[in-house]
Amino acid sequence: ETDTASESSYSLGRIKKSPSSLTNLSGSSGMASLSSVSGSLMSIYSADFGNVDVKGNIQFAIDYVEQLNELHIFICQCKDLAVADVKRQRSDPYVKTYLLPEKYKLGKRKTSVKKKTFNPVYNEILRYKIEKDLLKNQSLNISVWHNDTFGRNSFLGEVELDLGTWDWNDKSNKQINWFPLKPRVEINFKRDLQGFISCFVVLGSLFTGKKTLSTGEVHIWVKECHDLPLLRGNRLNSFIKCTVLPDTSRKSRQKTRTVAKTTNPVFNHTMVYDGFRPEDLKEACVELTVWDHNKLANHFLGGLRIGLGTG
């Protein structure tokens, strides 16, 4: 979290010539209700510097502009934000957005930084060029951060919207509304997976004649996935990584082959881990993560953990 303000945002004054329904948004006086999608995928990728108790609200609106094939997020203002720098009793807040689970290709968008205020006013539009049909597999994460001079930015709260259930035809959803900022929730791998993994874990001892050896093998058969999210049109090339925790060394990492151009890949791949004693299984945990293969960077799609004991 070492970002500084970038050219990702556009103030209202600079976009008057662009057709956008957001320029005619009307305000809403009441607090909007929100079912926040818990377990932001950002928890996997970014550290949460500082220990600020989240408080306050953020005012924004979202709309999809058909003429431009763009998602527009109008960040209006925040109020009653927490104190990030206790020593100097100040916060220098900015707002950052992500479309999840895709975090790399579409990237982040950021507003400008407002200095020395707990009630910053932005009036900026953050834009994403994306086909509307792809939004049904996305969540919009909006987070507020204190910009620190030395790069140790502090998390001030977030809001997350499930765009798959968002009613774009509801006029009230296009109005500017207040949303309470939420603290970051720890990731729950199984809950955040979009789609399903079919797998089996087999535990057994090795036998040689009448003698049972003291160690055995763990077999993880990864059969297939269903309904994985599309990130780049229909070009989804997926594979699965496997790690038996708490061992995170290279020898613990295995992966399947890449299956191209399908959201329902069939792998039929067995991962074999040997040298396990029965007591080792009490501390073992199988972690399976699904990735979209790309030449520049592999993109995280989801994952789950299967606990074999108390580990």
Automatic annotation (TrEMBL):
GO MF, one annotated term: neurexin family protein binding
Example GO BP: exocytosis
Protein keywords: Membrane, Repeat
InterPro entries: C2_dom, C2_domain_sf, Synaptotagmin, SYTL1-5_C2B
Any Gene Ontology CC annotation: exocytic vesicle
Biased composition (Low complexity): 18-28
Keyword rRNA-binding set for record: no
The protein's name: SYTL2 protein
Species of provenance: Atlantisia rogersi (Inaccessible Island rail)
